[in-house]
User: Fold this.
Amino acid sequence: MTASDPATPASHASGKTSPALEQLLSRASRDDLVAPAPEGQTLETILAAALRAPDHGRLRPWRYVAITGEARPAFAHEVLAAIDRQEPELPEKKREMRFARFSTTPLVLALGMHLQPESPIPVWEQEMAVGAAAMNVLNALHLAGFGGKWISGKFCDDPKLRESLGLKGDDRLAGFMFIGTPAGPRPVPGRPDPKAYLAFWKPGARVSFPVDRESAQPG
Ligand SMILES: Cc1cc2nc3c(=O)[nH]c(=O)nc-3n(C[C@H](O)[C@H](O)[C@H](O)COP(=O)(O)O)c2cc1C
Assistant:
């Protein structure tokens, strides 16, 4: 089986997964990012994966803005100005860290949301479509050997920052994706047991989740 072959129902039944699914299971956010970042056709392919996201009403709410190369320090200054307007209480260390990340990360991708409140599709569904697409970006980066981390903050609500990213009216900013190549190997972090978050509905029975049963125990 190649990475492009989907698993078949028969292989699901045997508990086997596809190589692509195995690779997805090792995804983790990375912010130790160095060059290269995806560009050109590679970046377009990653965004093509993003646009595979479910999108109720085909509203296509995603708007991506790439900040690369020499544009980064200038944009990092715009981020600092937005932070100063929206979260003046932010500790200086965090402020400096934001500036460093925005000015040096190989590729910063703004996750714009072109929202249509007048549409019969609820705004939350439009936002979910952008979120689903962002997850596809993270997965596609990982499958292509890159790394990424999705960040946000109160500064993302800053109207001037939004405007500088071409977002207007009801458009919002879902944050930024820091993108590049992981600086080196890292152990894959553990994840919760999926069974803890899964319940099976049965008629007349109260639905409860293993994770909540555990956390409800005293002590
Ligand atoms: C919408 C959104 C915004 C986030 N904003 C931040 C952020 O500002 N800073 C941060 O450290 N992590 C943020 N995170 C979490 C990281 O993207 C990441 O999920 C976290 O570091 C855990 O890594 P993992 O994806 O490997 O579980 C955000 C996640 C989401 C979905």
Strands lie at 33-34, 62-68, 107-113, 147-151, 172-182.
